[in-house]
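# step 3/5: fold
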Amino acid sequence: MNDTITSGFVVEFKAGWELAAQQKDSRLQATVTDIGGVTGSSFTHNQLGETEANDVTSRLGDTEWSDQNHETRIVLMQDKDWATPIDQFDVPKLLASPQGEYMQNGIAALNRKKDAVIYNALLGTALTRAEEGAAYGTVDFDPNQAILNSATGFTKAKILAAKKLFRANECDEYNGETLYMLFNSDMLEQILSDTTLTSSDFMAVQMLQQGALAGKWCGFNWVPYEKLKNANGIKTTMAYTKSSLKFGTGMSREIDISPRRDKKNAIQIYARESYGAGRVFENKVVSVDFTV
């Protein structure tokens, strides 16, 4: 028998299952621009560069053009799946329908994978090309948008430095943008331990009472995410605008429950979907390093 099944047997405790503590929903999908369904293996985003108006100093003079820089970002779709077996001999020994709880576990795993795809796209390399028919190149994360470690934890100075970058880039609430900041348990501990942050000048007293980064403060909406990049004790969180990244769904989630004839008619629960995420504006994403 499969050990992962037999360990779930219930003898006399209760007629139900408790899923292991885990993140079950996608937390990041709603924080970026979701374009919906995508046909094909990729989707694109076209953007124009910034231009400036000219001073007119003479009548009937030559026209001065402000040539537009054109760029196309391409986002490749990624296929994801999840499968688990349930031995037919185990089914009568279970006191709960296995399909429901097992399927919830699979859906939670796929939702967490969505968040990993979005996080990696915010920090990673984007594909781009300058004109139709040209070869695609890569755009790395802009180092000018990185607030580096400096051997310190997550501090007030780093929050303010991130906010300053969004203002300098005209990418904050004054331009209709919604700002998000990812935080994990280490950041939560460091923030709640910093008396300069927990004063009434920075957040409501209720935040301290609840011990949570609830709502919006310092200009950011705070989103819990534990899977931050960790390089030798230096973790990297991300601050970004909703329009900084685009997310598309190729194959909507499909779930199949069927017997496996080659595995003694074991029940196989299988789920699959495809999606892609791509950063489309470097100046709307900021990375923040901190030590733990």
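# step 4/5: annotate
The two ends are 42 Å apart (CA to CA).
# step 5/5: archive (pending)
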